[in-house]
Amino acid sequence: MRSPHDTLRIVRSTSPPVTFTVKYLPYQLYPEASKAGEDKYLWYQRSKYGDSPEKMQMYVTLMTAYGKSAGIDYKFGGTVANTLDAHRLIQHYQEERGSECADGIVNSLYSQYFENEQHPSATATLLAAATAAGVPEADAKAFIEDEYEGLQEVKMLIREQAGNGIDAVPYVVVEGKRRDFTLQGAKEVPEYVKALEQVVKESG
Q1: How far is it, in rounded angstroms, from Cα 177 to Cα 15?
Q2: What was the pLDDT predicted at 147?
Q3: CA gap 133, 103 in Å, rounded
Q4: Which of 7, 89, 118, 200 would disulfide-bridge 192, Cβ 3.0–4.6 Å?
Q5: Which of 153, 173, 11 is nearest to 94 (CA)?
Q6: Residue 192: other Cβ atoms inside 10 A
Q7: Residue-level pLDDT at 69
Q8: Which residues of the chain fall below pLDDT 70?
């Protein structure tokens, strides 16, 4: 997630005055995952690497090195679980409080899950993310505990993404005045910069 944000910082510092607004749309990689979840390390080893400890260790080594280069301190413990409630939180406060708040929630959720081995949709995780983004604790707690508020809306958005042919993340669309640019899969910062700078050029 940090590459697009690094890109925005670079483009904003080198281009003529321009405004980009980040909008998050929900997509679940593992919608069949339970709410309680299961051990992240063992799940990856079994589901992705044929229950091979050697292949799993290779993955850990590779991702640790990649994370270090990107400023991310990946950890591999914790829990893999259903993320629907996290998406519900992001969408609600993106609509209610704007993109800066949504950014804060997403950044906190990523840090908690990938760097601090927290459950991705536990009440404590969601509450920490919301308050880190400036949402009053009482407001965030009331929303999180009402598991039906915003639920149908976020499910509809998830179905829309599937209907648009999206079947993996990251999936980034840079909307321009003349045309849009779509970047699928993990990209390096220069690729994002190139797309945004082309949008800036075509918007002049």
Answers
A1: 16
A2: 94
A3: 8
A4: 7
A5: 153
A6: 22
A7: 87
A8: 1-4, 15-17
Q: What is the CA radius of gyration of the chain?
A: 18
* Secondary-structure percent of the chain, ordered helix, strand, coil, rounded to 5: 60, 5, 35
pLDDT at 95: 97
Residue with tokens 């890109």: 7
Cβ contacts of residue 157 below 8 Å, gap of 6+? Answer: 25, 26, 91
The helix/strand count (H/E) of the chain reads as: 9, 4
Question: In sequence order, what DSSP letters do the residues of 150-197 get, joined into one string?
Answer: THHHHHHHHHHHHHTT--SS-EEEEE-SS-EEEEES---HHHHHHHHH
Residue of 167, 202, 161 lying closest to 181 (CA atoms): 202
At residue 189, the pLDDT reads: 85
Would you call 80 helix, strand, or coil by DSSP?
strand
Q: The pTM is what?
A: 0.91
For residue range 60-76, list pLDDT tens digits in order: 999 999 999 888 999 99
* Token pair listed for 20: 């980009």
Q: What residues contact 162, with CB distance under 8 A and at least 6 apart? A: none
